[in-house]
Amino acid sequence: MTLARENVLVVDDERDILELVKYNLDKEGYRVTVVASGEDALAATRAKMPDLIVLDLMLPGVDGLEVCRRLKSDSKTRGIPIVMLTAKGSEADVVAGLELGASDYVTKPFSPRVLTARIRAVLRRGDDAADDEATVHIKELTIHPGRHQVLVCDKPTELTATEFRILLYLAKRPGWVFTRQQIVDAAQGDDSFVNDRFVTDRSVDVHIVSLRRKLGCCGAYIETVRGVGYRLQDQ
Hints:
This protein is of the alpha/beta class. It has 8 helices and 12 strands.
């Protein structure tokens, strides 16, 4: 018998999808809660904090992007990883979801095995991050991995979950040059199920632009290495 593990909240207005996802996650030992609307998703999250949320975008009432936006703007729920599961698969939709802080993006129709693998990879990345508590200092920039906090000149700045992972990845090895694909792997998970059609070089550039803006005077620390990728300045 598989031991129960993390709590997963699945949000979708299609009953068949809910049943399919719940069945496959139950087999893997996850404790699964299912709801069919954005309002119910927010209420369920407040009632019992899940370890991960599988979130459809096209929901009645409060849609998936708004649910994601509200969760990521609340300090109590900001750290919950979100895997978006939706039929909206254009690059603009992918970038919008990543910008809001989604950890991964799976399009319908989907393979239950792939979705389960994505969920497992996202939760594993969270466990790895929790084990790495060392504070990183780069000039006027301070990164607290355990607190998921970034300070610019001792003042906190708000980053999405994906932006935080990219910044921490660069800051762990200042001066090293990383390709866009290496950054994609760090931000989205380096597993065989990642589909490069949805995780694009362009989305990395969008995150870098946003990071530079949010980091203010420290934004210039992120340097573009033409034809290769990006690096964070040495201390």
